[in-house]
Design goal:
Blueprint (H helix, E strand, L loop, with lengths): L8 E6 L5 H8 L6 E8 L3 E2 L2 E10 L3 H16 L2 E7 L1 E4 L3 E9 L2 H18 L2 E7 L4 E4 L2
Parallel strand pairs: 1-5
Antiparallel strand pairs: 2-7, 3-4, 4-6, 4-8, 5-7, 8-9
């Protein structure tokens, strides 16, 4: 099981495949009846182009930003929150992000997980480069 950053949160940037079960297990406890997890998976297309893979690069402070996203959602909701983001080269079908939240009821778990993923995408400095079947590539969101 991951070591927590602070009470009720865990976050990490990983150059190796993410153990989604460990992330989910971190947030789950006996008082929670709902576990909501998001897995961002590398897909084989974007717009009209066939994608063959992705490269993720993280700013040296990316882990701090990810931790702050988790801590902010945990503080606002009182829930256990966890997220792990991959870096490096990923193939189609690999998991790039796992975010998980557990709560007594499903509505609050869904809302908190959505808030967490939106916050990560908006504020964590991790950049994605897509490789296309045509041989070209592009940085996304720069």
């Amino acid at each position: 099981m991951p070591d927590p950053n602070s009470a009720g949160t865990f976050s990490a940037i990983s150059a190796t495949p993410i153990d989604a079960s460990a992330v989910e297990d971190f947030v789950l406890s006996a008082e929670n009846g709902a576990l909501v997890a998001f897995r961002g998976i590398v897909r084989n297309h974007d717009r009209d182009g066939a994608v063959t893979g992705l490269d993720y690069q993280a700013h040296p402070d990316a882990e701090r930003f990810l931790r702050e996203c988790c801590e902010t959602v945990a503080a606002a909701t009182g829930l256990r929150v966890a997220a792990v983001h991959r870096t490096g080269s990923l193939a189609i079908g690999e998991v790039a992000l796992v975010a998980a939240v557990a709560a007594p009821h499903r509505a609050e778990a869904f809302a908190a997980c959505a808030e967490l993923v939106d916050s990560i995408k908006a504020s964590v400095p991790i950049w994605k480069r897509q490789h296309f079947a045509s041989g070209s590539s592009e940085w996304v969101g720069l």
